[in-house]
Each structure stands twice: as structure tokens, then as C-alpha cells.
Amino acid sequence: MQIPNPPAALICAAEDIFDREAVAAKVAEAAGADGDERVLRGEVVKILNEAQKAGRAAIEAAYLEKPFDARPMTRAYTWLTDCLVGTAHFVATTYLHPLPNPTEGERIALFAVGGYGRGEMAPQSDVDLLFLTPYKITAWAESVIESMLYILWDLRLKVGHASRTVKDCVRLGGEDFTIRTALLENRFLRGYAPLDEELNQRLNKDLFEGTEREFIDAKLSERDLRHEKQGQRYMVEPNVKEGKGGLRDLQSMYWIAKYVYHVQSAQDLLEHDLFREDELKRFEQAENFIWAVRAHLHLIAKRPVEQLTFDMQVEVADRMGYADKGGRRAVEHFMQDYFRHATSVGDLTRILLTKLEANHTKAAPLMERLFRRRRRIKKGYKVIHNRLAVVDDTEFLSDKLNLLRLFEEGLRTGLLIHPDAMRLVTANLNLIDDDFRRDKEARRIFLDLLLKHGNPERALRRMNELGVLAAFIPDFEPIVAMMQFNMYHSYTVDEHTIQVISNYAEIEREELEEELPLSSEILRFGVNRKILMVAMLLHDIGKGRDIDHSILGAQIARKVAPMLGLKPAECETVEWLVRYHLLMSDTAQKRDIADPRTIRDFAKLVSTVDRLNLLTVLTVCDIRGVGPDTWNNWKAVLIRALYRQTKVVLEDGMEALTRENRGVEAKKKLREELSDWPAKALKKETGRHYDPYWQGLHFTAHKIFAELLRDIGDDEIRIDMHPDEDRDATRACFAMADHPGIFSRMCGALALVGANIVDARTFTSKDGYATAAFWIQDADGSPFEAGRLKRLEQMIHKTLKGEVVTTEAMKSKDVIKKRERAFKVPTTITFDNEGSEIYTIIEVDTRDRPGLLFDLTRTLANSNVYIASAVIATYGEQVVDAFYVKDMFGLKFHAASKQRALEKKLREAIEKGAERAHS
User: Does residue 247 share a domain with residue 104?
Assistant: First the structure.
């Protein structure tokens, strides 16, 4: 039995992967026993299945000893597959369908194609086979192929196969680039060898030669579509195979080089001057790392998983030996390495394409060439294939500030930078030293890049990828490719920073006036753009350390802002903005902004309208830069309301806001809306509520509650559910007789119907009725469809009437998805007696899960705590619930002993719920 020799540098001994002699002996013994074809095939499957299990176990054990050693691992899986496929072919042609004297037409050759043909296989890779015959397939060849496939399928291999002639291969390869690419990497395994030579001669002569440009264009189009589907930026749950900077991008580079230059290995890229030594090293390091990650994914999942989901990230990081250090989890260090390698893949792709472009791009159309001549390019630069290039490397480097001027010229002309110019910059980053950073002209150029040309994100992204940004601002280097391991942030820290600046540039270009009217108005009236831009650049620069990133960021800003040439007063404002860049977002989302004390405290910290304007724009851009769907109407309404009220206080004093919040206007509007009511009923309604009710709700809610409370019976439960388009949520209003724990029961009822509570207000009237308003969303973060509201109402009624036992029913709902279980969110509980005049604010910062709010409110109710309102802020897997409460006597919780006792009960409720959620 002829089994191919093992390749060099397997991850473990070849005989441990597949003992060729032992398997051959067992197959011969099985073939010598009496029995039909089916029995023999069954025996062969048993023999190979045992060998496959042993081989896979040996490779996995060796790989776990060397978890970064990807190439020998991929070769080992390939050789094991060669052995299994080769044995199946031997059995099919020798024992099951022997043909001692085949005719010319009864020949067959077996090829590995695709990744298997290239000799790179992950643990769960597909086995792509090509069965090649000289002419139309014969009955004998059909039987051989069928028997082979049955054996391989019984081994649970995922086999992709095609049966073709050489003529078919050329014809189909000309029609389909996927087939053409697979054929590009064909590898002869067994059978009639002359067909191997004929196939490759015909492919080169009739298919590959002269179609290089066509193939390059096709592969680049495929890449663009892939990136569009997976996400153009480095998303925090990347697809290691298809995503930006993933294996498919590396393979596309190699396919193009092989198609055009006939390279046989990565090392050949040097000989054709496609890469320099250091670039080849980066290529090999990136390839090895990403293959290693992919293999661990397959081994953990025991199936071909390619998405590096949050739960998988933790396991892969552990298998690869990463550890917690420097205030960051092991998984964050691992993902930073991943994204840095992915960025390298992008750089290398550009470099390779430059060489190909130089050799295979046709002359530009006449109009384009005429247009180029008219475009004024500064001395020292030239245009190659519509990209900005350097005329003379030595002259360019004689003035090291040209390392920044290149990006300015790119923005000024609108040209992309030529990859050769990028290589020149990357190779000379050492020129960006302390003298360079202190140079006034360097500061001017850098600030002009941010402020002068209208699209700073383009220059910043390229400067970041090439290392220029981190060289010019060394404190930026730690956040390059830094992943934030949570479900809230969609991007790495550096990419988030660039997204924030991109948002700002869009507002400045007046592209978001409809979506962001307040920010657009602020910029129209004017702000100090230099302060705002530098603050945005530095706002997250302190992330990833043991210290609070806002505090550390402010300390870094104190050092960097003067270095960038800002005046002392400007530096002070930048430092303040970085220190308090989360203040407005936190206040709007975690506090009751209808409470005058909230506005007073916020206004006191902000102190001036100028700072309020700067902070508002920074906050909006920051939230929008977190991810594609983070900004919504709900947040917009909160930010606008906080801005408007704070501006009133800063301009006219606290008295103006107090007058505004007394409820006089709200009662007046309600009287106008209910003008058809009897005077007696109207007087009863406007007199039955305390001041916070009028201050804390919009008058549209006042009207709804007036209708719900009119002639309500003591045992009635009235509900009104309507979409609130302004807040991207459904508003659910409840009215019923007040009694202890009613707020908790409402929370439980909403949780049972799958509602995610994003905000809540509850009030008790003077005549003993509870009025509660909840804003809820469905599991996708959207308002409930109008058609579902009636059924939701009915289910909530049943729960509130006690027909459903909430605590029992919640057990089936209270489950955290497997993908989300990797997140660790420490629980923090604080008591704030200063943030409100009459309430203690209990803030619970913990891991979000279904049923959490019900558990917390039930614990508070059982402790005789009156909940006036709840403000819910969700950040991915983290939730911050703020409860405005009083004790049973209507007093604040001042006593430390009471606070400790209540905190203990809340923690117990959180822990018990967490146990249910993970069970």
C-alpha cells in the first residue's frame, strides 16, 4: 500500500500520527478474509477510524504543548488526511474494483485542491478532492469514486469533490474564479501521473497565462465584498478566516503572487522583490498566529468555527498561554496581538498590490491623465497610478518633517498615499524623536492634519496603521489595537478614537444636521476646534491600566496638550474634558434629570456654557463612536434635555430652573388638553399629584395617567401601552391602588413578557394610587410591534393579578447566553445622599441578565424600601440601575448600618440570580 512520505517538520513523530505499516497490515488482513464488498468497506472504515482518532489525538496533544506552532500542525493534519484518502483510494482500486489492464480511457488521477491542495489544514477543514479522468467518466471510475467517498464520509470527513476531465477544468475555471483558484493549488495525490502533467500544462497555457489582470481584479473584488459583509473595521468578534486582516486576506495575497509570478512558497516572495526581509517576517508571523488561533477554535468547538466570539476568545487566550497583567485580562492582551497581526496583513496587502499594479496596470485613460497634470503636486512628490509617491527617498528623508508632510499632502490633494511611500515612512520611524516632537513646525503640521482639511480620520487611520501616530505621541502606543473585552464597544480603542473624530468631521461638514441637530447647532455658533479635536484624540488614551482611564488620561493630556502647541488655558480645558468626558453621558443615563439637584450638581461641575458646548459635542461623538447602533433617539432625548436645563442654570441661575420645574406649566397644558372634562374631575386630577410627578413626566404621560385614573376602582389595574418614537421605546403606563412591592411586581410582569426596561418612573398620588411609567424595548433593542401590544397587556394583567407566580416563571427566563458568559463585571453598590433633595440614590453597577431588575426591586420591597423612580443604563453586558428611594418613614438612608444591611441583601439577590442564569 503506497502512502505518501510525511513532510518535514511535523509537530510530532509521523508514526504517532499514522502508522503506515500497521494500517497496511490490518487492511491486507481484512481484504484476505471472506466477505463481500460492503463488509470489507466496513472493516476498512473501522481500521481507518481508529487510526484517525489516534492521529488527531497525537496532533492535538503535541499542539497544546506548542500552542503557537501552527505550520507543523497544519502540515500534520494534511498528512493525516493524505494517509486516510490514500488508503481509501488503494482499497477502492486494489480490492473493491481491481482493473489489472486498464484501457486509455480507464484511468483516474486523484488531486487535493484548495487549502488541502496547498497543504494547510485546520483540525476541522474540508477535504477538497478532484477526480480527473482523460475522457468522459467510465463505469469503473464511477465505482472507484463512489467507494472512496463512502469510506471518507463514514470517517465523518467533510468532503468536497468534483469529477472532471482536463478539458472540463479549463472550461469551468474560465467561467468561475472560485474553481480557478482551487485549481491553482492542485496537488497530485495518487493514480495516473501523466494526467498531473497534462492538467498543469493546460491550466498554465490555456487558462492562467494572459489573464493575470483579470484574476487580480476578481480576487480584490472578492476581498471587498468579504470585508463589507464582515465589517470594514476591526470588529471585536472577528472572523479569523473571512474577516478583515484574516486568513483569507493572506491567502489572497499568496494566490495572486502564485498566479502572476508562479511562486511556490512565501520565501519566493523575496526572490521576486515583492517583499523585503522584514516584511516577509511580518507575513510569516501573522500567518502563523492567525492559523494558530483558527486551530484552537476548531479544537475547542470540535467543528469548523471561524468566528472568534467572546466566549471563545477567553478559551483561546488561555490555551495560548496568555495571562492577566498590568490591570488587563489575558484575553485583552491576546486580542491586542490578534488585531496587530490583522493590521500587518492590511499593510502587506497594500505593498504586494503596489508591485502587481506597477507590472499589470494599463495606462490610465486620457482624461484622467490630463486631470492629473492639472492637479498641483508639491515639489518632491509625484503621482503613480493615481497615488501620491515620493520622487527621491534620500531627499525626502533629508528633512524628517516630511514624515508628517506626506500625510498633509495626501489630504490636500485628495490622493491616496502610494504603498512605497508608506514603506519608506515605516522604515524610518526612528526619525520621530524628542526633537521632532518639540519642533513647532511639526506641531503645526499635525494640528493642520486634524483641523484644516475636513477629513482628519483618513490621515489618522493611515498614520496609526503605519506607527506614525504612536511615534509622534508615544502615550498613544499602548491603545493601538487594544481590545476592550465587553459587549458595549464594537471597535478597538484606537479605532474608536478615530471613529469619534470621524463623527465630529461629519457634523462639521453639515452631514448630520437632521440626526444631530443640537451638536450641529453648537458647531454652527462656534467652539474652539483645537481644544475639541485634541480632547477627542486623547479622551481614551489612559485605557488599559490599573488606574481610572479618565484620571490617567487627564494626566497624559496635561503633558501632551502643551507638546502639541496649545496655550495654557486651552491645555486646562483639554485636561478637564478628558477627565470628565463621561460626565454628561453618565448623568444623562444614570440619574433622574427631572430632579433639580441633578442639574444643579452637573452645572456646578461644568461651570461655563463654553465647556458645556464642548462636552456635549464630545459626548455625542463618543457615544456614536462606540458602535454602529449605540446612538439612538433615547440617548439623544436625554442628552438634549440635560443640555437645555443646564444651559438655563448657567445663563439664568438655579431659580430659573426651579420655576420651570414647579409644574405650573404642566398643569396648565393638561387643563388645555382635557378642556372637555367636567371642572370637578379636572380639579381632582390636577390636585391629586405631588410636585415630582409634574416635574418627572412629559405632559403626554400626564394626559394618559389622567385617563387611566379617572373613576378607577380600588381593585382595578389599568394599562396603556404605546410606541414612544422619540425614545425608540414602547411606553407602558400603569395605574392601580398603591401597596408595598407594587413596583417590583410590575418589573417582574414586564420581564416575563420579554421586555427590557430602559427607564422607569413611579409616583404615588395623594389619594393612594400608584402611577408608573416604564419605557421598554424588545430583545433586539427596538420598540415592540404595535400588533403585539394587546397580547402583552393581557399577559401583564395576569401576572399583576397573581395568576402567574413571577418568581417561578422567571427561572426559565433568567438565562445568560453561552457567548456572553465570558464577561466578568464586578458588582459595585453605592449610596448617595447628596444627589437628591429628598431621596437616597442607590446605584447598583453589575452584570446584566434577564430578571435582574425584578430581583433588585423585590429585595428592596421586602426590606420596606419605597422606590420613587429607577433609572436604567445598559452598556453591553454591564448595567447600572439607580434607584431613588426612601425608607418606610419617608426618610433617607443615612445610617451606615442600614446601608450595609441593604447592600448585603442586594448582593445576595444578585448572586442567587447569577447562579440561576449560569445553570
Answer: no
Dihedral angle of Cα 818, 823, 828, 832, to the nearest 10 degrees? -90
Beta-ladder partners of 133: 165
- Beta-carbon-side half-sphere exposure of residue 522 (alpha carbons within 13 Å): 26
- 209, 226, 249: which is the final residue of a domain? 209
Residues 6 or more apart whose CB falls under 8 angstroms from that of 80 comprise: 17, 18, 52, 55, 56, 59
Helical (H) or strand (E) element with 731:
strand 729-737
Q: Which of 1, 185, 218 is nearest to 111 (CA)?
A: 185
CATH number for the domain harbouring residue 246: 1.20.120.330
Per-residue pLDDT reduced to its tens digit, 840-867: 999 999 988 878 888 899 899 899 998 8
Structural domain count, the chain? 3
Look at residues 456, 473, 245 and name the one whose alpha carbon lies nearest to residue 341: 245
Specify if 18 maps to a domain: yes
- The residue written with cell numbers 466496513 in the block is 42
Q: Is residue 465 part of a domain?
A: no
Query: Is the sign of the CA dihedral 171, 174, 177, 182 positive or negative?
Result: positive
Label residue 363 left, alpha or beta by phi (over 0 means left) and psi (-120 to 50 means alpha).
beta
| Phi-psi sector, 142: left (phi>0), alpha (psi -120 to 50), beta | alpha
d(CA 845, CA 847): 7
Give the closest residue to 144 by CA, choosing from 84, 77, 99. Answer: 99
Share of the chain above pLDDT 70, in %: 93
Rg (CA), the chain: 34
* DSSP-based three-state secondary structure for 796: helix
Q: What is the dihedral of CA 98, 101, 107, 108, to 10 degrees?
A: 30
pLDDT band at 366 (very low <50, low <70, confident <90, very high): very low
d(CA 24, CA 327): 56
Confirm if 199 and 186 have CB atoms less than 8 A apart. Answer: yes
Highest mean pLDDT among 230-234, 492-496, 579-583: 579-583
Whole-angstrom distance between the N-terminal and C-terminal Cα of the chain? 52
pLDDT, one tens digit per residue, over 172-185 is 999 999 999 999 99
H helices of 688-788, in order, are 691-696, 699-709, 742-752
List pLDDT tens digits, range 739-780: 888 888 888 888 888 888 888 888 888 888 989 888 888 877
Cα–Cα dist 346/250, whole Å? 9
Domain annotation covers residue 567:
no
Amino acid sitting at position 33: A
Contact of 499 with 625, CB cutoff 8 Å: yes
- Number of CB atoms found within 10 A of residue 104's CB: 8
CA gap 680, 663 in Å, rounded? 20
Give the amino acid at 267. Answer: Q
- In the DSSP assignment, the letter for residue 544 is T
Q: Answer whether residue 446 is part of any domain.
A: no
Q: What is the CATH number of the domain that holds 133?
A: 3.30.460.10
Considering the domain architecture, whether residues 180 and 301 belong to the same structural domain is answered as no
Buried b vs exposed e over 381-408: b needs ≥16 C-beta within 10 Å?
bebbebbbbbeeeeebbeebbbbbbbbb
Among residues 906, 772, 760, the alpha carbon closest in space to that of 831 is found at 906
Given 162, 190, 209, the domain boundary residue is 209
Specify whether 113 is located in the same domain as 227. no
Residue with cell 434635555: 641
